[in-house]
Amino acid sequence: MSSWNLDMLPGSQPANHIIVRHALVVETGRSRLRTEYTVLVPADTAAERFIVDGGSAEIGVSEPFVVLSRIPELLRSADVARSIAAADGSGIRIVRVDELKPHQWAAARLNTQYDHSVISRFRDRLAADPAAWETLVAYIEEGAHVPRAAARLMVHENTVRYRLNKLEPILGTPLTDPLTIADIVLALGAGTSPTR
């Protein structure tokens, strides 16, 4: 049995399509209206055309596809992209699945209560020392660059090193271990706050 392609639809030309998952929030005085919808459009359609003046928008765009049987999978991927856009909270944000980095995708897919409990336990252990936690966050957000983290925190570079070294016994591995850094990046990107 063969899969149906979008180019098999009457009158259509062979072309890639995308799924756009959109949440629009319009505030008018005392009321706030949130509308969500899904659109299947040609891949060359600009997602920006779904933005309405005066509102904020969270738009997730799937990767291009032709085979109709992929629609359920790509609906889920567009939902993940829209959830990343929503987490940003900066008014209008368009997130395209094919532009996501693996750690962004993985962190956004952590969505069960169990996923969040695993991440929370990991983050809570690291956040037991608030100064070390704040330093770790700055260090990661500054690209693991000690001088930039120190400047951001307005402390000496050796203070950053000292605080980071205090976390290594908690982690059980050095911060130079790529898998440890991957765990930390996933925990930071998962959107759960330390329970402190």
From TrEMBL:
InterPro entries, per the entry: CdaR-like_regulators (IPR051448), PucR_C-HTH_dom (IPR025736), PucR_C-HTH_sf (IPR042070)
One Pfam family it belongs to: HTH_30
Protein name from the UniProt record: PucR C-terminal helix-turn-helix domain-containing protein
Residues in PucR C-terminal helix-turn-helix domain copies: 133-188
Coiled coil: none
Gene3D superfamilies xrefs: PucR C-terminal helix-turn-helix domain
